[in-house]
Design goal:
The C terminus is likely disordered. The N and C termini lie far apart (57 Å). 71% of the residues lie in helices and 0% in strands. The chain is built from 13 helices and no strands. The chain is an all-alpha fold and 226 residues long. The chain is globular.
Protein backbone atom coordinates (compact mmCIF):
# COMPACT_ATOMS: atom_id res chain seq x y z
CA UNK A 1 0.00 0.00 0.00
CA UNK A 2 1.38 3.41 -1.00
CA UNK A 3 0.43 5.02 2.33
CA UNK A 4 2.55 2.50 4.25
CA UNK A 5 5.49 2.80 1.86
CA UNK A 6 5.47 6.59 2.10
CA UNK A 7 5.19 6.45 5.90
CA UNK A 8 8.07 3.95 6.01
CA UNK A 9 10.26 6.33 4.03
CA UNK A 10 9.43 9.25 6.33
CA UNK A 11 10.14 7.08 9.36
CA UNK A 12 13.49 5.97 7.97
CA UNK A 13 14.59 9.44 6.86
CA UNK A 14 13.13 11.70 9.54
CA UNK A 15 12.04 9.57 12.51
CA UNK A 16 8.74 8.73 14.13
CA UNK A 17 7.86 12.36 14.88
CA UNK A 18 7.70 13.06 11.13
CA UNK A 19 5.08 10.39 10.51
CA UNK A 20 1.95 12.49 10.91
CA UNK A 21 -1.22 11.94 8.93
CA UNK A 22 -0.80 15.35 7.33
CA UNK A 23 2.83 14.71 6.29
CA UNK A 24 2.09 11.22 4.99
CA UNK A 25 -0.94 12.42 3.05
CA UNK A 26 1.03 15.27 1.49
CA UNK A 27 3.92 12.98 0.51
CA UNK A 28 1.49 10.41 -0.90
CA UNK A 29 -0.44 13.03 -2.88
CA UNK A 30 -3.78 12.60 -1.13
CA UNK A 31 -6.03 14.29 1.39
CA UNK A 32 -5.38 13.60 5.08
CA UNK A 33 -8.93 12.23 5.72
CA UNK A 34 -8.20 9.47 3.20
CA UNK A 35 -5.68 7.92 5.59
CA UNK A 36 -8.36 7.50 8.24
CA UNK A 37 -10.26 5.22 5.88
CA UNK A 38 -7.44 2.70 6.39
CA UNK A 39 -5.91 3.55 9.78
CA UNK A 40 -7.63 4.58 12.98
CA UNK A 41 -4.80 6.87 14.11
CA UNK A 42 -1.07 7.51 13.87
CA UNK A 43 -0.22 4.58 16.13
CA UNK A 44 -2.12 2.20 13.85
CA UNK A 45 -0.21 3.59 10.87
CA UNK A 46 3.11 3.16 12.67
CA UNK A 47 2.17 -0.42 13.55
CA UNK A 48 1.50 -1.12 9.88
CA UNK A 49 4.80 0.47 8.87
CA UNK A 50 6.77 -1.55 11.42
CA UNK A 51 5.06 -4.75 10.33
CA UNK A 52 5.63 -4.02 6.63
CA UNK A 53 9.35 -3.30 6.92
CA UNK A 54 10.14 -5.98 9.48
CA UNK A 55 8.21 -8.63 7.54
CA UNK A 56 10.42 -8.00 4.51
CA UNK A 57 13.54 -8.16 6.67
CA UNK A 58 12.51 -11.42 8.36
CA UNK A 59 11.57 -12.99 5.04
CA UNK A 60 15.04 -12.19 3.71
CA UNK A 61 16.65 -13.75 6.80
CA UNK A 62 14.48 -16.85 6.50
CA UNK A 63 15.49 -17.34 2.87
CA UNK A 64 19.20 -17.20 3.66
CA UNK A 65 20.71 -20.59 2.93
CA UNK A 66 22.09 -22.51 5.88
CA UNK A 67 25.82 -23.09 5.73
CA UNK A 68 27.82 -26.09 6.86
CA UNK A 69 28.60 -24.52 10.25
CA UNK A 70 25.52 -23.74 12.42
CA UNK A 71 27.66 -21.71 14.83
CA UNK A 72 28.89 -19.51 11.98
CA UNK A 73 25.30 -19.08 10.78
CA UNK A 74 24.30 -17.98 14.27
CA UNK A 75 27.05 -15.34 14.22
CA UNK A 76 25.97 -14.18 10.76
CA UNK A 77 22.40 -13.78 12.01
CA UNK A 78 23.63 -11.67 14.94
CA UNK A 79 25.60 -9.37 12.63
CA UNK A 80 22.59 -8.98 10.33
CA UNK A 81 20.41 -8.09 13.32
CA UNK A 82 22.88 -5.45 14.56
CA UNK A 83 23.21 -3.96 11.09
CA UNK A 84 19.44 -3.79 10.61
CA UNK A 85 18.92 -2.08 13.96
CA UNK A 86 21.60 0.56 13.36
CA UNK A 87 20.32 1.24 9.84
CA UNK A 88 16.70 1.62 11.03
CA UNK A 89 16.85 3.38 14.42
CA UNK A 90 13.28 4.72 14.50
CA UNK A 91 11.82 1.43 13.32
CA UNK A 92 13.91 -0.52 15.82
CA UNK A 93 12.49 1.64 18.58
CA UNK A 94 9.00 0.62 17.51
CA UNK A 95 9.94 -3.04 17.28
CA UNK A 96 11.34 -3.14 20.81
CA UNK A 97 8.19 -1.63 22.34
CA UNK A 98 6.63 -4.60 24.22
CA UNK A 99 3.13 -3.27 23.59
CA UNK A 100 3.73 -3.64 19.85
CA UNK A 101 5.94 -6.72 19.57
CA UNK A 102 3.60 -8.99 21.53
CA UNK A 103 1.02 -8.56 18.75
CA UNK A 104 3.41 -8.57 15.81
CA UNK A 105 3.41 -11.59 13.47
CA UNK A 106 6.70 -10.35 12.00
CA UNK A 107 8.35 -10.23 15.44
CA UNK A 108 7.12 -13.75 16.14
CA UNK A 109 8.48 -14.90 12.77
CA UNK A 110 11.82 -13.25 13.54
CA UNK A 111 12.11 -15.20 16.77
CA UNK A 112 11.30 -18.39 14.87
CA UNK A 113 14.26 -17.74 12.58
CA UNK A 114 16.48 -17.38 15.65
CA UNK A 115 15.02 -20.52 17.20
CA UNK A 116 15.78 -22.42 14.00
CA UNK A 117 19.41 -21.35 14.05
CA UNK A 118 19.78 -22.19 17.73
CA UNK A 119 18.16 -25.58 17.10
CA UNK A 120 20.82 -26.40 14.50
CA UNK A 121 23.53 -25.54 17.01
CA UNK A 122 21.85 -27.78 19.59
CA UNK A 123 21.71 -30.65 17.12
CA UNK A 124 25.51 -30.74 16.80
CA UNK A 125 25.96 -30.77 20.57
CA UNK A 126 27.34 -27.24 20.96
CA UNK A 127 24.79 -25.84 23.46
CA UNK A 128 25.56 -25.87 27.16
CA UNK A 129 22.07 -24.48 27.98
CA UNK A 130 18.59 -25.34 26.75
CA UNK A 131 17.45 -24.02 23.38
CA UNK A 132 14.91 -21.73 25.03
CA UNK A 133 17.53 -20.26 27.32
CA UNK A 134 19.91 -19.70 24.42
CA UNK A 135 17.24 -17.93 22.36
CA UNK A 136 16.28 -15.68 25.26
CA UNK A 137 19.90 -14.75 26.01
CA UNK A 138 20.79 -14.01 22.39
CA UNK A 139 17.60 -12.03 21.78
CA UNK A 140 18.04 -9.95 24.93
CA UNK A 141 21.71 -9.28 24.20
CA UNK A 142 21.06 -8.32 20.59
CA UNK A 143 18.29 -5.90 21.51
CA UNK A 144 20.36 -4.36 24.30
CA UNK A 145 23.43 -3.98 22.10
CA UNK A 146 21.50 -2.14 19.37
CA UNK A 147 19.68 0.16 21.80
CA UNK A 148 22.95 1.01 23.55
CA UNK A 149 24.69 1.82 20.28
CA UNK A 150 21.73 3.91 19.11
CA UNK A 151 21.96 5.98 22.29
CA UNK A 152 25.50 7.01 21.31
CA UNK A 153 26.14 9.62 18.59
CA UNK A 154 27.14 7.82 15.36
CA UNK A 155 30.59 9.41 15.33
CA UNK A 156 31.31 8.08 18.82
CA UNK A 157 29.96 4.53 18.43
CA UNK A 158 32.31 1.66 18.99
CA UNK A 159 30.88 -1.24 16.97
CA UNK A 160 33.18 -3.60 18.81
CA UNK A 161 30.73 -3.31 21.70
CA UNK A 162 28.32 -5.55 19.79
CA UNK A 163 31.12 -8.03 19.08
CA UNK A 164 32.09 -8.09 22.76
CA UNK A 165 28.46 -8.64 23.77
CA UNK A 166 28.17 -11.56 21.35
CA UNK A 167 31.33 -13.19 22.63
CA UNK A 168 30.18 -12.80 26.24
CA UNK A 169 26.85 -14.46 25.49
CA UNK A 170 28.48 -17.25 23.52
CA UNK A 171 30.72 -18.09 26.48
CA UNK A 172 27.54 -18.80 28.41
CA UNK A 173 25.64 -20.50 25.58
CA UNK A 174 28.21 -22.56 23.68
CA UNK A 175 30.42 -25.44 24.67
CA UNK A 176 33.95 -25.77 23.38
CA UNK A 177 34.24 -28.09 20.40
CA UNK A 178 34.10 -31.04 20.41
CA UNK A 179 31.24 -30.59 22.87
CA UNK A 180 30.03 -34.13 23.42
CA UNK A 181 33.49 -35.44 24.29
CA UNK A 182 34.23 -33.02 27.10
CA UNK A 183 31.10 -31.44 28.50
CA UNK A 184 29.27 -34.38 30.02
CA UNK A 185 25.51 -34.62 30.12
CA UNK A 186 24.27 -31.10 29.41
CA UNK A 187 25.34 -30.78 25.76
CA UNK A 188 24.33 -34.38 25.09
CA UNK A 189 20.87 -33.86 26.59
CA UNK A 190 20.26 -30.68 24.60
CA UNK A 191 21.47 -32.31 21.39
CA UNK A 192 19.32 -35.39 21.94
CA UNK A 193 16.29 -33.21 22.61
CA UNK A 194 16.87 -31.47 19.28
CA UNK A 195 17.16 -34.74 17.37
CA UNK A 196 14.58 -36.93 19.15
CA UNK A 197 11.48 -35.62 17.30
CA UNK A 198 13.02 -36.83 14.04
CA UNK A 199 13.30 -40.46 15.21
CA UNK A 200 10.63 -42.29 13.20
CA UNK A 201 10.48 -45.36 15.44
CA UNK A 202 8.99 -43.45 18.40
CA UNK A 203 5.25 -43.27 19.07
CA UNK A 204 3.63 -40.08 20.34
CA UNK A 205 3.47 -41.61 23.83
CA UNK A 206 7.14 -42.51 23.70
CA UNK A 207 8.06 -39.01 22.57
CA UNK A 208 6.07 -37.56 25.48
CA UNK A 209 7.83 -39.88 27.93
CA UNK A 210 11.22 -39.06 26.44
CA UNK A 211 10.47 -35.36 26.74
CA UNK A 212 9.62 -35.85 30.42
CA UNK A 213 12.93 -37.65 31.02
CA UNK A 214 14.86 -34.90 29.25
CA UNK A 215 13.09 -32.27 31.35
CA UNK A 216 14.29 -34.12 34.45
CA UNK A 217 17.81 -34.17 33.07
CA UNK A 218 17.65 -30.39 32.51
CA UNK A 219 16.58 -29.86 36.13
CA UNK A 220 19.07 -32.28 37.68
CA UNK A 221 22.35 -30.98 39.18
CA UNK A 222 25.08 -31.03 36.56
CA UNK A 223 27.36 -33.30 38.60
CA UNK A 224 28.85 -34.87 35.49
CA UNK A 225 29.47 -31.57 33.71
CA UNK A 226 32.11 -30.29 36.10
Amino acid sequence: MRIVEVAARLLREQGAAAVTTRAVAQAAGMQAPTIYRFFEDKDALLDAVAEHVFTAYVAEKALAEAGDDPVADLRAGWETHIGFGLANPALFGLLTDPSRTTHSPAAVAGLEVLRGRVHRVAAIGRLRVTERRAVELIHAAGTGAVLTLLSIPPADRDLELADAMYEAVMRVVLTDAPALAVDGTTAATVAFRALAPKLPMLTDAERALLSEWLDRADDAPAVLDA
